[in-house]
Amino acid sequence: MSQTILPGKGKQFRNCNRTACQSPDGVVFWNRATRAYYCRTCADLILQNCTDEEREQIFPDYNENIVVYKTMQRTIRHAKQIF
Ligand SMILES: [Zn+2]
Questions:
Q1: H helices within 1-83, ranges in order?
Q2: d(Cα 81, Cα 71) in Å, to the nearest integer?
Q3: Which domain holds residue 51?
Q4: What's the gap in Å between 77 CA and the centre of ligand 1?
Q5: pLDDT 10s digits, 14-48
Q6: What's the CA gap between 35 and 1, in Å, rounded?
Q7: N or C, where is the chain less crowded by C-beta within 10 Å?
Q8: Cβ proximity of 37 and 28 under 8 Å
Q9: pLDDT confidence of residue 1
Q10: Cα–ligand 1 centroid distance for 74 (angstroms)
Q11: How many domains, the chain?
Q12: Does this model's pTM top 0.85?
């Protein structure tokens, strides 16, 4: 059985680039090595055994991406309270 590839795979705010994931949640983590975007879970998975230097190479905007991610999560929570 082959995995379906979504049209938004690897695109910012669309779907995570990891084929097994392709989650639409918080896809803001830019991976310079693959030139694609990932969700937080996959970004952290990729980085779990990396040194700070490697992290800097693979996800150079990680800290900024975390800020965007957290803002998005807050906005979604807020929207759910309203609607
Ligand atoms: Zn993912």
A1: 40-47, 52-58, 62-82
A2: 16
A3: 1-83
A4: 20
A5: 999 999 999 999 999 999 999 999 999 999 999 99
A6: 27
A7: N
A8: yes
A9: 55
A10: 19
A11: 1
A12: yes
